[in-house]
Amino acid sequence: xxxxxxxxxxxxxxxxxxxxxxxxxxxxxxxxxxxxxxxxxxxxxxxxxxxxxxxxxxxxxxxxxxxxxxxxxxxxxxxxxxxxxxxxxxxxxxxxxxxxxxxxxxxxxxxxxxxxxxxxxxxxxxxxxxxxxxxxxxxxxxxxxxxxxxxxxxxxxxxxxxxxxxxxxxxxxxxxxxxxxxxxxxxxxxxxxxxxxxxxxxxxxxxxxxxxxxxxxxxxxxxxxxxxxxxxxxxxxxxxxxxxxxxxxxxxxxxxxxxxxxxxxxxxxxxxxxxxxxxxxxxxxxxxxxxxxxxxxxxxxxxxxxxxxxxxxxxxxxxxxxxxxxxxxxxxxxxxxxxxxxxxxxxxxxxxxxxxxxxxxx
Amino acid sequence: xxxxxxxxxxxxxxxxxxxxxxxxxxxxxxxxxxxxxxxxxxxxxxxxxxxxxxxxxxxxxxxxxxxxxxxxxxxxxxxxxxxxxxxxxxxxxxxxxxxxxxxxxxxxxxxxxxxxxxxxxxxxxxxxxxxxxxxxxxxxxxxxxxxxxxxxxxxxxxxxxxxxxxxxxxxxxxxxxxxxxxxxxxxxxxxxxxxxxxxxxxxxxxxxxxxxxxxxxxxxxxxxxxxxxxxxxxxxxxxxxxxxxxxxxxxxxxxxxxxxxxxxxxxxxxxxxxxxxxxxxxxxxxxxxxxxxxxxxxxxxxxxxxxxxxxxxxxxxxxxxxxxxxxxxxxxxxxxxxxxxxxxxxxxxxxxxxxxxxxxxxxxxxxxxxxxxxxxxxxxxxxxxxxxxxxxxxxxxxxxxxxxxxxxxxxxxxxxxxxxxxxxxxxxxxxxxxxxxxxxxxxxxxxxxxxxxxxxxxxxxxxxxxxxxxxxxxxxxxxxxxxxxxxxxxxxxxxxxxxxxxxxxxxxxxxxxxxxxxxxxxxxxxxxxxxxxxxxxxxxxxxxxxxxxxxxxxxxxxxxxxxxxxxxxxxxxxxxxxxxxxxxxxxxxxxxxxxxxxxxxxxxxxxxxxxxxxxxxxxxxxxxxxxx
Lengths: 362, 628
Ligand code: SF4
Known about the structure:
The structure holds two protein chains of two kinds.
Chain A: H1 44-59, E1 66-70, E2 85-88, H2 94-104, E3 109-115, H3 116-122, H4 124-133, E4 138-143, H5 178-184, E5 189-194, H6 198-210, E6 215-220, H7 232-235, H8 240-243, E7 244-247, E8 254-255, E9 261-265, E10 271-275, H9 282-285, H10 299-305, E11 316-323, H11 329-344, H12 349-354, E12 359-361
Parallel strand pairs in A: 1-2, 1-3, 3-4, 4-6, 5-6, 7-11
Antiparallel strand pairs in A: 5-11, 8-9, 9-10
Helix pairs in contact in A: 1-6, 2-11, 3-4, 5-10
Chain B: E1 4-8, E2 10-18, H1 23-37, E3 40-46, E4 61-69, E5 82-85, H2 88-94, E6 103-107, H3 113-118, E7 135-139, H4 141-148, H5 156-160, H6 163-174, H7 180-189, H8 194-213, E8 219-223, E9 231-237, H9 238-253, E10 257-261, H10 268-275, E11 282-286, H11 290-302, E12 306-311, H12 313-329, E13 333-339, H13 356-361, E14 371-372, H14 379-394, E15 397-403, H15 404-408, E16 410-414, E17 463-465, H16 480-495, E18 506-507, E19 515-520, H17 524-536, E20 542-546, E21 548-550, H18 556-561, E22 565-570, H19 575-584, E23 589-592, H20 601-627
Parallel strand pairs in B: 1-8, 2-5, 5-6, 6-7, 10-11, 10-12, 12-13, 13-15, 14-15, 19-20, 19-22, 22-23
Antiparallel strand pairs in B: 2-4, 3-4, 9-16, 14-21, 18-20
Helix pairs in contact in B: 1-6, 1-7, 4-6, 4-8, 6-8, 7-8, 9-10, 9-14, 11-12, 17-20
The complex binds iron/sulfur cluster.
Iron/sulfur cluster is lined by residues 39-40, 43, 45, 74, 144, 148, 223-226 of chain A.
């Protein structure tokens, strides 16, 4: 299994600054709770859980300073299986609850676990606002393009025409592209990875955790029960080479056997996939788009996100679309409190309640 | 010229004008002068929902009513004794409330054909007999004000805008109000525009001098200071007192305060005010919606902050699922509902008490929450910290039910000595609470509260959520017996709050009352005023007020059963009455009005009289039956 390599980051990686660390050696096992994992056999969630449990020790954080907040859905059971603090909340509301927690507690590493129904349908409003505010959260969006927990209705990422229990004649809803949505919502970190690609998933988690601000990681997650094979094109060893458009910062975007496809700017102002001629010279190759995840302007990242199939998935860019720095909501909010205390000293309750206009009786 | 001074024991003044005429400011200043003078007082602003309805129209009229006296004031007053109307629309919208023989000061400047028509007048009411029942002073206030500020270099428009200060000066003379505070206030307010400050002060002084020198006003009035308990006082509105109560609760618990809120009338002032007090460690979060406001507050509460979410009825509807989660998580959280007229958007700027049952039952499943309701603007301070005390001590969401009348109304407040306020002890979990380790749902035997264990403490890592939890461990549990136990335990925990509720105070001075007037929330003042009138007419009547709506005070059933007739006036269709009847099997009678305005004392005195008569008739029937 090949995996897309990520370059060394060039950005300040202080996403975890302020969270107490430990020198003690940590193991994957320490992060597993005593609860029996109850996803269906073969569910992609197992692979993500294993990857997260395997990755967390690498952060060297004190376990008690990590908190996973989830909404409702199959993936939202995630916090129960990690021996950290965990909060399994309400359908769609995890980003809002996590915003309060992260703002109140700079000493916590706060993670949000959500799904396509949870984050993009019932909780769409909270997701876009958490991204816009750039709250220091790492959001793992498990996209299986279906409602699993409620037994198989179409979701806001399901393709048009999908026949489900609630759409016997096929869905007529245009789906969301979560990456495009996040970029439109001013997200500072947006990535896509695949449940079964442990190495790439871990590499993306590493960058997402290190990012100070809201990181949105869309994880293509197979639901073998209700939408099996939705991501076969990017998971299957035989198809993957032709289907995965790897995004590596600073690299020309090229894929397919022997790099026979490439991404170039299109006449319409977007980007498009072209075949790279066997005899392409340097001048031709210079036309290939070089991925710049650090560009302030999200236009190109957005254009790349549009290379994802909206219908049945046959091709999709995988990797970090955007990774830029912007002050976070929670840092700025805490700074204002500190500034207020710094300028006028800690508030004095007696003089507050007294106010300027008192009079005395007796 | 020597003017006559007449002594009065109480006066109700209403200032009315266009939304842009500065009536709220005028009312505020007159109130402050009155407070400084030492009268007891109560105020009620009344403004339209539209920010600036078309000038000169009825929907654009804004008013401010003030009741002050040489004795304890209970309400902003039923009918004004004095109406100041700044234009035809203000006159038309308010004159029907003025008591017969009352004083009417009208700015005649705008009584043109066009403006009269805009207000719906077919002819000029200042001519003819329309206003014959009143002492009318039609004065060109705008013209006089403009004249008084000539030479200050103001534009015509700005000059005419000082008319409210002229009116304030005139009324200040009429009632012998101290003026220094107003002058200082104007100087501070327009500190960066000394010309404007000077012009406003000139207009204010001209208004005073106009009263003193012209012949149209032969009499001025004196209302002696009211005897009040010794102490330092200030005038305060309900929303301000509520915000201060939240700041105080943070200080008293030693916890940082977090407020998650979405703008909504009439609760937004709580958000505005708290956002100014960051130096107290207060964080305010203006959320994307009501749900996120309470969600973030819940997140902060889970993280160990003292968390609040302020809103009005429609917002509570949106927050109910999160309040339900807080019931399950058993974390402290206070949801403030500044009630307004409903349902739906209803009457956003008017008051109502129709969210009691929503607060009580407006969630799926058995989801009990304690409910506290302040009874006056100043009481909002104590009620806010009381709600926080219950939330923290009992690890539960609490509903605090204020309303539009309390929020915007004001009264003198004896400023507390903050060192004497009761502390709130958060008692965070700091280690394992059972021999087997940490049990997040093990309980305090008395309060049944569970530990508050925010993240960050090693060894206490645990997972909780909205799915039913196993007793003690908090692990997911679908066991039927466990669910039954947990539902009952959460109810018992809320019921246990009753142990900390003080006994019900019953005001029954003669001890022979047969009727008990029982209220909750903002009706306390109006009911007391009605009771006072009834007693003055010789009807003995008792009064009690409920501050804790859930759980109800442990002695309330006994109190109700002591009276032959219990009457509950409410600004809804009988919500507390329903709860009392269900709970105590007492034949409580309701008196319900939903007009968006507080009760007036006359009508409540009338209600008392009717019930008294009914009891007498009942006696007679019993007597004649016995004779037969
Ligand atoms: S329904 Fe699908 S997503 Fe849910 S646990 Fe089963 S396989 Fe996983």
